[in-house]
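Hey, quick one: can you model this chain's 3D structure?
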Amino acid sequence: MSDSEYDVVVIGGGPAGEVAAQYAIAGSSRTAVIIEHELLGGECSYWACMPSKAMLRPVAVHAAARQLDGIKVGKRLLPEELLRRRDAWVNDYEDEGQVKWAHGINIDVVRGHGILTGKRTVDVDNGGRVKTIKARQAVIVATGSEPVIPKIYAPAQPWTSRDATGVREIPGSLIVVGGGVVACEAATWMAALGTKVTLLARGTLLAKSEPFAGERVAQGLIDSGIDVRLNVKVSEVVRPVAADTGVGRIHGDAVTVTVDGESITADEILVATGRRPTREGIGLASVNEDASWLYWVGDASGGPALTHWGKYQARNVGHTIAARAEDRNPPPVPADVPVPQVVFTDPQVASVGLTEREAIAKGIDVKLADVDMTSVAGFGLLRDDAAGRARLVIDRAADVIVGATFVGPEVDELLHAATIAIVGRVPVASLWHAVPSYPSVSEVWLKLLESLD
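Sure thing. Here's the predicted structure for all 453 residues.
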């Protein structure tokens, strides 16, 4: 494999890496290459955001249809059809379309593992064949993240999030370990596929969110037939025969977990206890991590492990690289940009900015606006069993919103308005003049303002 040179070299072809390369060369004659040893498009496209939401959306629609007068639907979804929809959204785990997109905007794609070997130099190992690529301007590390498997579970060859989104053999029973987003969402679609699910969390669910969010999600999981156990401790995990049988396939014999002295046995176990940036094996010892030519984006940066956040970072990095290449100042990036997130459970949780707890810890004089979502007529029209809650966290002195949380069906579409209000530091008094349509769910903004009087 011959050596080559580009203006920008990106290690990792997930959304953050793709966007960083795109913005770094846009509208110029600069060149870029993405190095990827798996599928171009990364975790989000094939193993996380897209497949999970492809399965969760039918689950949400089915749940709503069952609770609407005038519609009659069965109690069960169609597992084969649900997985077929998943496969369509991940393009049957082929990345030809992603490669075509990259080539269409003049980004080359090189297969293999990228390893930093010196200043602006990357070796690409593709099955023992090594190619050296040099960057004239910048190297961007976008290697993503990997699941953290505590030692007690490792011998059992547990499922990770990839097995859950890429499920091929639907287990009759499943133990889900964890209380975060992955655990809650995976429990939701696996139960919908007909699996008997037991969820074990060492604390509460969605512990970083407002407490009422985790409480309502826990109740939603229980209502869907999931055995939810909070504040528990696993002391032993036994699986007589464990093997890596492939992604989404059952990894051996039944597994037995001892939790607070009780034994629970299931066909499979999913461990969703967190992720860490993928930084091993990329040659960091060969370079200065703070070098001016080296950039970090996405999960690899150690920031929030969210696709939209990684792409935001990538746009900023791309703009910075382009500005330096053109001998101009990069555009300013504001401090404390709020991070939005949606948990696609039933109910959904949509949040951005600070929780009440976080705001108080920062020394903010907090004022809360809290309302029941059922106070809004448009919300009740969504489904006959609609329930939820909304909260704004307000900086009393500045009269601006610093955080927002919405819980309920389809609240994801409420989130961007809150994000704009926080980023724009829109005075709460001004929000009275943002008139919501009736009967839409956005009228919850009026109810929140009324709750402050």
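One thing worth noting: Residues 148-274 form a domain with the FAD/NAD(P)-binding domain fold (CATH 3.50.50.60).
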